[in-house]
Structures are given as C-alpha cells and as structure tokens.
Amino acid sequence: MPRIRALDGRSLHVRVIGRGPQIVLLHGFGMESRHWLPVVLPLAHRFQFILPDFRGFGGSSRHACTEDCILTSHAQDVHAVLEQLTGNQPVGLGGISLGASTALRYMELYGTAQVRRYLHIDQSPRIGHDDGWPWGIFGEEGPAQLERWRPFLDRLGRFPAETPFEALPADLREQFYDDLGYFLAKALSKPWMKWGARRAASVPLLANELVPVDNWYTLYQHMRAYAERDYDFLPLLPQLELPVRVMVGRHSEMYPWAGQLRMLDLLPNAELVVMENSGHVPLLDQPLRFIRELSATFA
Q1: Residues 113, 236 within the same domain
Q2: What strands, in cross-sheet order, belong to the sheet with 115-121?
Q3: Which of 3, 52, 75, 262 could bridge across to 106 with cysteines, CB 3.0–4.6 Å?
Q4: pTM to 2 decimals?
C-alpha cells in the first residue's frame, strides 16, 4: 500500500486495489479507506480503486490538517494523490459525506479536468442552516446540537495540539466520546446499530477502536469546522458540467434528503439514485445495490 507525499511534506496512507480504469473514493468523517473494501473488492477485476486515508483517520490518523479550512487541506491532499498516482489521466471520483464535500472543494479549487465522472453520496451541498436552508447537518436538530458543541469546543481549543488525549480533563474526554457517539448514531440507520454506536462510544477502549483518538486535535478541527463554517457549494454546482450521480439515503438523519435533491436543480448533467432502504451510509445499509450502482456510475 503506497504512501504519497502531501504538499506540506507529510506522508499520507493510500490503498490501491485492482486493475483497470482508476476510481478515487473519499471516505467520510469517522470512516477510513478500509471501509470501502467490501464494496470495491468485487469490482477489483474491472477497476483500479485509489482509497486515501484523510488526515485524522486510518493510516493518516496522526496528521493534523494544516489549513484553517479542513476541506481545503483534504482537497490539497486529493490533488497530491491524483498527481502522484494517476499520471494526470482523468479518473472517476466519488465521495461520501466529508469525502463528498472534499470532492466539491477539490473541483472548486482545481477544476474538473482530471475528473471524468463524479459520484456524490449522501451529503448536503450546504452544511449550515438558516431560515431558507433547514437541510444542513443533523437536520432539524442541527442548530441546537452545534450550539451545544460550541462551549465544549472553546474549552478544548485552549489545549495545545500535542496534549495527550489522556491528559485532557475527564469531563472533556467524556463529552468528546458522547458527541462522537451522537455523530455515529446519526450516521447509522438501524436501531441496533445506533444503540451499539452509543454504547461503544461510552466505553473508551471500544470508542477508540471505532475512531482512534490518538490525534484528538484533528477530530476537534473537523468538529469546529462543522460548527463554525457554513460550507456552501450551491454556487459551484452550475459550473460542474461533468456527469454527476447524486446518491441519497432515503432515511438519512445526517443530511435530510430533501436538501440533497436541490442539487438536481443546479447541476447541468446529473442523475439521481435513491437508496430507499438506506440511511447516511448506503454502502453499509444496501451493499449489493451499492456495488451495482458504483459499477454503473463508472462503467
């Protein structure tokens, strides 16, 4: 499994699997590249999948985002991946949640010359909320939840990035895991999965298996960005003339599907894929259908 050198010199972990036309898939918050494996291995005889680990996750978990904007930091890393592993040839690009926002930021910064098709998986084109946009993160619960995060994030931000997680005050560590459990439960669709995520997050050893906190500061950077930055890609969408498939989970609690459907009105060349029995993570909820749609997108 190769490592690529990012613009800041850091070494980032990337999985490369299969042979054929190249497809780059970008994971979501709380995920990592290995979570793609069950849905890409059945297609590895047809495509070559390039699966980077974002900073703070998987094999890149010890690296913090170097830009004030986390999406800019991740997009720059995607640019480095494409430069070093694709020979500057156009690739298929897909992203879920954080990965989808990163893909949009990449295309905003670097254009679409290196992207032949794009698969956008369960992510609102705008993260925040206001009277005219109620479909941001966590839906109707979003504004209250983000407001609850702010004093916690203010306290957490007073500690240097190199502070060991175990050295943080006990109440901050407890709330960190509680908020992590809330996030994971929102991402999952089945009641037993939600219960399991909340229970696991309440046990530090299990929670650390779900999302390692070795680099708690990078996770903090992401939570702060969600709470304070109103990422809005609505103005970008009319400029994306490449073929786009918008895949939505009909029961997504992370981003209400009504907001995601607004993308179809703005994208010049878009197709909708509704995963009727899925929440925020259709590759987990409907893996066989997801494999078929992934193959159809990039065939």
Answers
A1: yes
A2: 3-5, 11-18, 48-52, 22-26, 91-96, 115-121, 244-249, 270-275
A3: 75
A4: 0.95
